Amino acid sequence: MSSRNFLFVLGSSRSDGNTEILARAAAEQLPPDVGQRWIDLAAHPLPDFEDLRHDSDHVRPEGDDVALLLDATLAATDIVIASPLYWYSVSASTKRYLDYWSGWLRTPGVDFKATLAGRALWGVTALAHEEEVVADPLVGTLRNSAAYMGMRFGGVLLGNGSKPGDVRKDEAALVRAKTFFSQEAPLASFPYEP
Questions:
Q1: Helix crossing, 65-75 with 92-104: angle to 10°?
Q2: How far apart are CA 156 and CA 11, in angstroms?
Q3: Of 37, 94, 101, 147, whose Cβ has the fewest other Cβ atoms within 10 Å?
């Protein structure tokens, strides 16, 4: 029995978009005993993040979408951020989810950073550019977040597609999807570290 549990966080404003199609193609390759949980941020919208880092009234959320995402994040051995490339980075809903990590670092009884340390962060994105280098800011956001948290980083699966379903024509991306989650996810480090 596998002890791996994947959380797929869908950050698109539309369902069944190119990024989700690519993420599901990669997830189909996971062994059947690997847990999969999919949470669509459009269906579970988080309120605007309020930075309370210098306040003392942090409490663990209960019974709302914030609690749902916190609990799912803590339960995951592998977190997959599936966000389309919007203005060269993650979508607004994805960024808001990552902003909440800042608050969860200070939530009593959660031990968020220590819990995620050693776990794996992955990315999947579809972009409407032939030049994959334009996704570097998105990749950097995820890699640096993983490095800060002491997580492993499996990289970002990139696919090309603008109109709905376009990514199905990107044969190279679909080939990469077949082995994406089977590759090693090394410990993340900031770019300026040796």
A1: 70
A2: 14
A3: 37
H or E element, residue 124: strand 120-127
Give the pLDDT of residue 62. Answer: 83
Q: Is 105 exposed, middle or buried (0-12, 13-18, 19+ CB in 10 A)?
A: middle
CB 91 within 8 A of CB 11: yes
How far apart CA 188 and CA 151 sit, in angstroms, is 6
The dihedral built from the CA positions of residue 152, 12, 165 and 21, taken in this order, carries a sign that is positive
Give per-residue pLDDT as tens, 39-67: 999 999 999 998 766 555 667 888 899 99
Tell me which CATH code domain 5-182 carries: 3.40.50.360
Q: How far apart are CA 19 and CA 81, in angstroms?
A: 10
Give the CA count within 13 Å in the CB-facing half-sphere of 67: 6
Helix (H) or strand (E) holding 158: strand 152-160
Q: Where are the domains of the chain?
A: 5-182
Cβ contact 80:122 at 8 Å: yes
Beta bridge partners of 160: 127
With a cut of 50, list the residues of the chain below it in pLDDT.
Answer: none
